[in-house]
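User: Watch each token:
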Amino acid sequence: MLFEILMYALHLFISIIFFILIPLPVIIHVTVTEGSERIHLILKVYKKIIMIAHGALIVMFVTGVLIRFDLSLWTIIVVIVWVIMGAYLGLTAKFVRESLEAADNKKLFEESVNKVKMFSTLLMLAIIAMFIIKFTDFL
């Protein structure tokens, strides 16, 4: 019983990292729209957060399996959304890295920043979908 409580607490604590990723597309959109030069700093900070989120994705999967593992429709949907989150997290990380490399080399990086914005928006939607699925028991 104590083990399950600890796993659930760890699962919820790690989910905070994904809450930090939710505002990324909005921050990028505002920064790009204003024409601010802070985009480089924002991408550097979020690059580290995204690296941590990759580890958190694994921890959340393991703790989720330890908390509840059955072959219900709910579990299948959670795993599908988890895979989608992982894919968009990886694509966001790729384009953040490319944007930072282009900025460091004094090349145009607007296209890769737009891809960061697009994939981080899709990641944001997947994260919100995961929280809705997890905290509403409609299945």
Q: What stands out?
A: The chain has five helices and no strands. The mean pLDDT is 90. The first helix runs from residue 2 to 21.
